[in-house]
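Progress report, Aim 2. The chain analyzed during this reporting quarter is listed below.
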Amino acid sequence: MKKVILSLGIISLITVSCQNRPSPPPEAEIKKGYLIYQNNCSMCHWETVSPEQIRDIRKMVKEGKKPPFKAPPMSEVSARVKKFYPSEREFVNFVKDYITNPSKDKGVCLPVAYELFGVMPPVGKNMSEDSKDAVAKWLYYRFKMSWEEFMEKHPH
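Predicted structure tokens for the chain:
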């Protein structure tokens, strides 16, 4: 009987734990977020870079040249923001605020990113709340790496 009660307690705990995790948004919302990225962000932010590209870009920067993009790649942005805002809700709220009212003070970029690119323009000011929400969720769910994993795979 004790085993049955213990088992039921463990199952209840697992069920409650799983209910507290946010479920990924519907695929349609992720696709909408990707389209918003393509139309509003991709002209400055590449979606992702390979370790080889990072190596080549780092060499260019050391030679005093500019990188081939105007802002950090989204894979790096996602990993960096998750370091400071790991939950979906915190991440989405930060991204929505930052793309609307960007500033160096509230940004989480590495200092070198500000040196190379400056602060981004407020592209979110011209977006609906739904669009900001969709692009922020796309950014959160599209990339799975933590900051530490990203830096291990893409050393700067």
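The longest helix spans residues 2-20. The radius of gyration is 19 Å. These observations will guide the mutagenesis work planned for the next reporting period.
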